[in-house]
Queue: 2 jobs
Job 1
Amino acid sequence: MSGNYRQWPMILFLGILTVPLILMYVYLFVDTVTNSPPGSMIPNEFTTEHWRFLWETIPGRPSIWVATWNTFVFATSTTLIVLMISSAAGYSLSRLNMPARSFFLGSIMVLHAFPTVTLLIAIFLILQMVGLYNTLIGVILVKASLELPFGIWIMKGFYDTVPWEIEMAGIQDGATRFQVWTKLVLPQVKPAIMALGIFSFLAGWSEFILPLVLAPDNKVQVLSVYLAALIADDNNFDMALFKSVGVFYVLPVIVLFVFFQNKLMNIYSGGTKG
Amino acid sequence: MGNSSVDVADVGGAKTRVPPTSGPKLSKLASIGNSKYLGLYLLAPAFLFVFVFFLVPVVLTGVFGFTNMSTATGISGGSYLVNQSSMLALKDRHGLDEIADDLAEVVYTIDEDGLAAAAQGKADAATLAEFRDKFLGQSFDNRRDVERAIKSLNSRPSSTRVIKAIAANFERSVLNIRFDTEEELFAAVSDFGVSLDAEQKVALSDVAYTGWVFTTDNFKRMVSLPETTKTLINTMFYVFTTLILFNTGFALVLAISTHYMESAPAGFFRSVWLLPRITPPVLYVLMWKWLAWDTGFLSVILEPFGVEPRNWMLDSPANAWTFIILINGMVGASMGMLIFSSAIKAIPQSLFYASEVDGATRIQQIRHIILPQLRFPILFITSYQTLSLMTSFEYILLATEGGPGGATEVWALTTYLKALSNYAGALEYGYGAALALVLVVIGVALSIFYLKLFDFKTLTAPPKIE
Amino acid sequence: MQKYWKMAAAVATSAMLSVGATAALAQDYTITVWSGGSGPNDNYRIDAIKIAADFLEREAAVLGEELNITVEGKPYTQWDEFKQAVTLAAEAGTAPNIVVAGHEDIAAWAQSGLIVPIEDYVDVDSWPINDIYENLFDISSFNGVLYGLPQDAESRPFFFWKGHMRGIGYSDADIDALPGRIQSGEYTLQDVLVDAKKIQDAGLVKPGYGFYPRVSNGPDYWQFYLSFGGQMEDGSGKLVFDKAAMTKFYQFFVDAVAVGVTRKNHIGTPWDQWYGEVASGKAGMWHGGTWHYKRYTTKEGLDDFFGSIQFSLIPAGDADGAANTITHPLVYLLTKQDDDDAIAIAADLVKIASEPRINALHAIKSAHLGITKSEASVDLYSGDRWAREATERLLPYASAMPNNVNFGQYWEIMWGGLEGSWTGQKSVADAIADVETELRTTLGDKIIIR
């Protein structure tokens, strides 16, 4: 790919630009297990004290394990809902000729323009009317709904790349369109489902504003809100502790990333045809 | 059997070719599977979710933007309350000074009607008898004195709540009582002896209502505040600078430079630059704070060079903006990087080899081969990211909260702060909704514009099976 | 007429019936308490309710009734999320029974019906309510009705680091005389700037640390407005914007930056860092709250508070103003609930929790001040030097922010103007002009602009 060109100038150039980023991430991990004397960046001792939140509960906060479980439930549930609904809706918009198709598609694009912030109070009211304010289920439903436009768009893009011949063959063999979808087409878009699944899980795991406003109670607190509250608390300023909680929080993200980055990077390749 | 597009029946319904052998009767599911309503069934859940949690809130937000909803008015409606502030408003706004003063009087009268009502409430007969003896016909101008009167009896009730309940029966005035409806308010006022004509009733109802009302004041306020312009300028500056520098600009740089590397270093750089996007915002901003704050990395590193430790992020508006753009930009660049990279990958290798044979430099390759192919992706990223940037505020909230002194406050952030954050707990939902409405209108306009730009039709070509 | 009295009768009936019913069955109540801005030293905000519950249960037993009260408490360390949570929970019908909030919330919450007056449930002539300081009683009232009971009192003093004052030539006698000079108006805010500069020039503190104010928004800043003669509310319930006083107030901070004793971007410094610095003598003068005493001596490890720090009222700005301090009591408030009996129980709990001995537990543990007159003679309280001295020197001169529905907006706008001029983004004149425009547009006739 680089042909006859030397590649080191490129690597150097990008390398220099990337240094701050690398620094921040390296120190993120280093600071969680070391202490440095004040005013210096060089650690001088190893310690596990920053990880004490794992076995001690900080007063006034829920246990970190409760928060972790909540976050896990939240991320997984939104992912499942988004996957199921997006794969159905994406197929429908891509393949089936139904009334007002272009209307749905257009509205999905337009919906992307709506910032969450504009909807918060109204969403709160709706949740409150159905009694789901301050519950995990409520936030899950909301987050899933807000992710749907993106999910449908991506799935539709991938469905568009599936050759028509597969479906036509299926129809000729006597399958219903539904069977064609579930048995023939869905396996074709497995990469999309994986990518969207991972993407949605990551989005759910990182979500901050929605749980902050709609589920602030300790019992349903998620890790992002936990960490933010920890940082904002001026009785306990301890950058190393924040980073340790942060690393704990980001671990699943890193794991998913390391194993699935290729799938992640492919997420956009099905969507934009020029 | 080739089903060419010519064979496709151009009818709205799904005309699939049912297999010639009739076979067993189609089951219900199968018939759904074949029906023209399959699409609708598949789309229904999505539609439901989006409707309830997306469309309805949007409509509600639009409605709230035209109200004065706030902590003081409450969300679910209000009552009618005559109190010091509403009487003040009656004087100021409607000039009904005398009526206001009359209504603000507190009167408790010990009369037969009150005693009868107290008896109905099963107050102790002995207590009431004594009370009648000692206090019949007297008037008090505050509740505490009535209660003291009751307490002075020999057969006083032992429970405070009972005392208060008895006292309540003698209240004749309307001050500080919450009435659920207008009618109740007017009835009580006329019972109290204050007569109002129709116009005065309207005025009283207007000042006494504690709930929210429809008003266009939000927009008037928005238009006349100097900070609205400032926020607008901030938002445009933020969106376009980040867009050009990072979301599009640096994304191009990343995509192109990784193209010119072996897959190992290329993969490394791509992964590193994807990290900001997948790192949870709270943690990501924390790392930047570690870098930039007084006790952070930059200060420590630069101290031996004689540079005073300072809060690099909040030191001045320029500093704050630099960091905001960096923080958001690094997150935004990754999406463009991925899309541009895959677009570049789609360019046939032969083009590159041919140009190398012709002696082209990298710059020439970039200009003549790569960039033309990227025209559509660049346009797409620009439009999509404009919308994303315009509506994003999470990182700014976490990093500078709009500081220093509102220098980095963008429209979306103002919306959040006005509606949900106030030191004295005076949240202004109505005004926040109005701000949000403006954002939505701009967002919708922009997205429709972009849709037109990208020839929406090609994305919605009719399916080929039909 | 009938209709209205029927309503009153209904209220009376239900009250009496329920009271009657209490005698018959065992009553179980779960009372939830939320408190805002509460750190580890503030646990008694909730624990006092638990103590009160035990007492109420015993009183009921003495009367032959059975009462079981479970108290569930939830402290919030921040104010923002706390107020958001309370308001939204109230709309959802899940508000806690008791809320410990700032007194400034009473106005908006009373107006919207989120809270109910405690006066509807307790006798104001009973103990300890009849012993509460008058100004605190007023601060906990709105529109003449007592809405809540003060949970704690405090004031916001001005602090000096004695070592540095000595370093610029003050003798111990001078330092002792300082509070008196400030109170009489002799030592003003201009003198503060002069002395802060001297401290800095003498190299005793680093530049920007001569005068080290609070790092975020707070009631404290209104003190400086008062110092220049400003008024927050006139007697009749309308807010007041005194342009001259506000201008001088903003100008003071701008001058502090110009002289170099305060940093331009001082606002936003992390609290933790700020506490550490002022408690260890890195700053010359600063201001804070009476609860700082606890923070400095416990968490920040300052051994000799009285030997190292001198405190006083906030100095007057000039001849127009006077030395002052603001007290920002937190109050116990009762939220509107469906179950009237639960509200009554909550009211009684709050009343008992305000008794001198119990309140003193909170006052001394968290270094706040007492709310009742007899609290000053509780041993725990009178034995505490800080409680004694602060009460004596500060409380009599304390004013409070008004309980006014629109005060929250006024406050935000004031802060915006201060931040803008302090950080140098606007000139003071521009900031004042913007503040005026914004006040006119937002509050209209609810504020008097002088």
Job 2
Amino acid sequence: MRSLFRRACFAFVALLMGAAIRPALAQDTIKVAYVDPFSGPFASGGDEFLKVFAYILQKVNADGGALGKKFELVPFDDKLQPSEALIALKSVTDQNIPFVMQCTGSNVGSALLDGVSKYNARNPDNRILYLNCGALATELTNELCDFWQFRFTGNVEMRAAARVKALPKDVTKVYLLNQDYLFGQSIQHDTKKWLAKLRPDIQIVGDELMPFGKVQDFSPYIQKIKASGAQSVITGNYNRDLNLLIKAAVDDGLNVRFDTFLAHLIGGPTAIGSAGEGRLFSVTEFDPNVPAELNKPEAEAFSNGWRATHDTDFSEIPFLTMFQMLARAIDKAGSTDALKVALALEGMKGTDLVGAPVEMRKEDHQLLMPYYAVSFTKNVKYDAEKTGLGWKTDFIATTEELTLPTVCKMKRPAS
Amino acid sequence: METVLISVLNGLVYGMLLFMLASGLTLIFSMMGVLNFAHASIYMVGAYLAFTISQVLGFFPALIIAPVLCGLIGAGIEIWGLRRVHHNGHIAELLFTFGLVFIIQRLVQMTWGMLPMAYRVPALLDFPLFHLYGVNFPAYRGFMLLVSGAMLLSTWVLLKKTRVGLIIQAALTHPQMVSSLGHNVPQVFTTVFAGGCLLAGLAGVIGGNYQTTEPGMADSMGPIVFVVVVFGGLGSLAGCFVASIVMGMIQTFAVVVDYSVADLLRPLGLAISGDTLLTEVLTVPVARIGALLPFVMMVTILFFRPRGLMGTRDA
């Protein structure tokens, strides 16, 4: 019995060592470190993104990768903690991986931004790039902007502008309900700014911050919204904070629009279900119905390829854009040297999968891209998460419309 | 007036849900002296099991089967886990249940995945029961009140009016004496633990579709249940009931109140202005910190009355 146990232990250790040695053998790839939560309450996001990246890399690598090499993802778990992300960054630099990518959480994002910037200042011969694919706080490409960061997703202000532009003309009373932390406050601030700018006719009848992830019963909020006479609730809530809000609204017979920012996030359609029909709205980077609506068969085929093997939806088009632009930049630079790649990425123009123009703006390293304002309805070609309902595009905020001014004063490296 | 009435109803429903969860916890604590950290995890398991069973057999069979399964899981935990670490003292038991939280969480994620389940209110109960000043009161909330009320009544009858309850209560205070009288005390412990888990499972079945069934549900329910138990008095079922209702009401009413401490001070001639250290604390509306109030109350009661509202011993 004991010897069996010992043998099992040896086998396990051997297995671990094998796993540790393996990446060293695969020398001919371009490694990209991927830092995101893979455990804890936010693991569902990281887990899903990992699958999405695997699907995207299939295409990018089949298209030739960069410099004739394939891209390889090296995941690191940050548990959505800035401190864990910095530990991961240490491993990334120890393993000489030139790119670090992160897609969840502005708190983690700002820590990485700072960490990468400091590391590059200290190690000018061995610099790395931070590819931001989901830290949304507007500040990261404004006040806090950094040469070594490139953000391949729209920031909160771009989303807020798209959100406000998409509001129908007959909406005149809105209620703002957001989570009481950096992201929610950022949404609250930018939404108010754009409401004042674009829709002075709209009256804000309620403006509220609620504790993040702590509210169990939303009926009192529903009651307040009802009393305010609002026609629309504009909210940056997501996951549980959004699902429970909409469930409570339907139960209590509150008939208003929910103009959200993130209702399309993975798991949202399943949790909300038919309760969201006709009243749930979101702003997305892409959804499976966009190619069909715009008649782009190539994009539709790509989206369907994902759909055939997954229960979730492919909506992460900026991830694909990011790898395509990175591949072009590496090819142009002729190496994975961070500075050369950064200079090649700056000002790079291109088109995304559906043919919309995108640009990596030189001034602040923010990707300029379009947003799709969508509604949750039955009349769509492709439903979301097999719920029978899906996202239909009501309004497109174009790249040009979402080219917003920046206050970034970037410190550029001397050489 | 209408706001008050609707808030009372909502607070009552939420309070009763809390009570279903907290009553099992307080039962286990009063019996075995173990603060079962994994209690909210059993609540989550109950919701997931109910979802799976209701896919096959429908909601009402799930209402019976899922809690029973949770009770069996509880019995297993007690017999093969807690009883073994029992002789190492309460700290060992506490740490054991603490570890269980993570194991159950991971097992649930591995079994059902990380995404929310489409666990819905049964169509039979999915209609507005009555209208109150233009606001619907869903039938399912009435059903929740009914189930939790029935549960309260049957637990009370079981503990206070039957022979089993007599032995349980006796084993609570004088385990050695009960053992000498020929009763199997460890078996009584197992029964109580299983019973507590059964109640948590029941709460999961009716709470899982009222809220959402997802891996984070244990984390979000766990702390507030502890607050209820501590506030009501560790080990007191009556205290637990009062505390649940109070917490439900407070959280519901807090959202409706848009006043801050500064508004209270204003009639006294104290106006808060400028940007001092305390401006933020004094001017934040109650609604924004509503979810914090139960914790404030727990700290306060531990300060002035450590045994809780109706507790029999100090926390």
